[in-house]
Design brief:
Largest sheet of chain A: 6 strands, mixed
Number of strands of chain B: 11
Radius of gyration of chain A: 13 Å
Structural class of chain A: mainly beta
Helix content of chain B: under 10%
Helix content of chain A: under 10%
Strand content of chain A: over 45%
Order of helices and strands of chain B: EEEEEEEEEEE
Order of helices and strands of chain A: EEEEEEEEEEE
Shape of chain B: globular
Shape of chain A: globular
Largest interface: A-B, 24 and 26 residues
Radius of gyration of chain B: 13 Å
Oligomer: heterodimer
Chain lengths: ~110, ~120
Amino acid sequence: QKEVEQNSGPLSVPEGAIASLNCTYSDRGSQSFFWYRQYSGKSPELIMFIYSNGDKEDGRFTAQLNKASQYVSLLIRDSQPSDSATYLCAVNRQNTGNQFYFGTGTSLTVIP
Amino acid sequence: NAGVMQNPRHLVRRRGQEARLRCSPMKGHSHVYWYRQLPEEGLKFMVYLQKENIIDESGMPKERFSAEFPKEGPSILRIQQVVRGDSAAYFCASSPDLSRPNEQFFGPGTRLTVL
């Protein structure tokens, strides 16, 4: 079983719609959860992080964490073509020395 | 405030040569991480370093790969006797000191091609 699993997609949504990206993780000891955006050929860019159960909102982005279900998601409201990228879910377990475990990413395309 | 810097951005080596990848963390960051990204795959953790110390190298291949973060200068990932399977993008990330250890900021990466 992989540490972090994501649906590779591709996920396509029309401009203005809500994009929903999902991620599950295997280790209940995981403590911190991150979403990165990666454009093709570029480096990952931190979008959001969440530590506690519930929702965390930042502009058009909302991260949701459910530790009981070992599930974290990212919602993108009012999707724009510039949001088209691969979204990486990352999980940190501090007892492993700050090592991040990344999913393989979900490719999102926002159609104008 | 400059971000994480990596050089070179592109590196071409022939099989059997050595590759040296450099990473300068963001100002004020003392934690450095190296990741490898193969085509169509996710980022794989390789090593975590602080100044003059390797904290976690559980993701490093046992042979040919080494990393250091000296007191002065950038962190270096060294790959000896490269093989075609080493072709990948290598990303360095850094994070602040202990007050916020978990937010990792990535450099632009070094794309290594082994001929």
